[in-house]
Give the backbone structure.
Amino acid sequence: MTALKVLRGLCAGVVVALAVVGCTREYGYSRSAFNTKFLDKTLEQVLADVGQADAVEKPTPQTTILVYAKRTFDQENGNSKDAAVRVTFKADANGKQMYTSTEFQAE
């Protein structure tokens, strides 16, 4: 009887783990996990790590904004999906585009 209870507990744990993994794939990244991909990185490094953005904006010659659609979710708000993430890079003194900020846009 005890072995059966242990087996049921293990099965329940596996189901919960699979559910969590499934949610992570569906939504992509949590906001905090996605944001760590940019810290102290250049535009080129981010593109190599995260991939091409869904849109690129160039409001000034020194500023580049990468827009990623539906890649993140907000853990603090019931895992609600974000419509987009805007990642801003600005040229440093050497002209290298460096990460400066992230803006999450909820759906």
